[in-house]
Amino acid sequence: MKLDEKLIYLRKEKGLTQLELAEAVKVSRQAVSKWESGGGIPSTENLRGLSELYGVSVDYLLNEEEREPEKGNTLQKEMSNTPKLVRVTQKKNSVRWGVIALVIFILMITVWVFATNKSKESYLLEEMKGEEVVTDRNFSVGW
User: Fold this and answer.
1) What letters, b where the CB count within 10 A reaches 16 and e where it falls short, cover 48-75?
2) Residue 55 main-chain phi, psi, to 5 deg
3) CA 78 to chain CA mean position, Å
4) How far apart are CA 32 and CA 52, in angstroms?
5) What are the E-state strand segments in 1-138?
6) Per-residue pLDDT at 95
7) Judging by beta carbons within 10 Å of its beta carbon (0-12, 13-18, 19+), is residue 45 exposed, middle or buried?
8) What DSSP letter does each residue of 12-32 carry, written as one string?
9) Under a CB-based contact definition with an 8 Å cutoff, are residues 132 and 142 in contact?
10) What are phi and psi of 5, to 5 degrees?
11) Residue 134 pLDDT exceeds 60
12) Which of 20, 36, 54, 66: disulfide with 10, CB 3.0–4.6 Å?
């Protein structure tokens, strides 16, 4: 089916006149008539407007091999891409949260190590209170 035949078919299926279509796409009625008679081709912008209005892809409009539009073709393509985008976003979020959890874990371990070492040092200093330290040179320190 050629572009001009598809445009006539889709317009009639939608129940629009050439004038109503022209107003919807913001072109003249003569432009619509020219497209449908095969005397001209819509611009890229107009093809996008027609595809949105009819709920078909621009590929469908331009490809002569396809006979009938797939119902909701544009929506189906968008919906088929959505789960993939959601999965990618979820994966990125999972990685991000994993990195955050790892950083928090490392910080907690570091704080714990310093806290336990400090308490050991304090304990050792307390053991040393009141003891005398003797060196080779007869030097002593009283705690």
Assistant:
1) ebbbeebbbbeebbeeeebeebeeebbe
2) 75, 35
3) 13
4) 16
5) 132-134
6) 85
7) exposed
8) HHHT--HHHHHHHHTS-HHHH
9) yes
10) -65, -40
11) no
12) 54
Give pLDDT tens digits for 35-82.
999 888 899 899 999 988 888 888 888 887 765 555 544 445 544 544
Report the predicted TM-score, pTM, of the whole model to 2 decimal places: 0.47
Burial 6-31 (b: 16+ CB within 10 A, else e): bbbbbbeeeebebeebbebbebeeeb
Query: What's the token pair of residue 107?
Result: 């910080």
* Tokens 């073709």, residue located: 73
Q: Does 113 score more than 90 pLDDT? A: no
**Alpha-carbon 142 to chain mean position:** 69
Distances from the Cα of 40 to the Cαs of 4, 7, 17, 44, 74, in angstroms? Answer: 9, 12, 18, 13, 24
On the CB side of 50, CA atoms within 13 Å amount to 29
Rg from Cα positions in the chain? 39
Give, as one character, the DSSP assignment of residue 13. Answer: H
Taking the CA atoms of 28, 29, 32 and 38 in sequence, report the sign of the dihedral they define.
Answer: negative
CA distance 74 to 104: 45
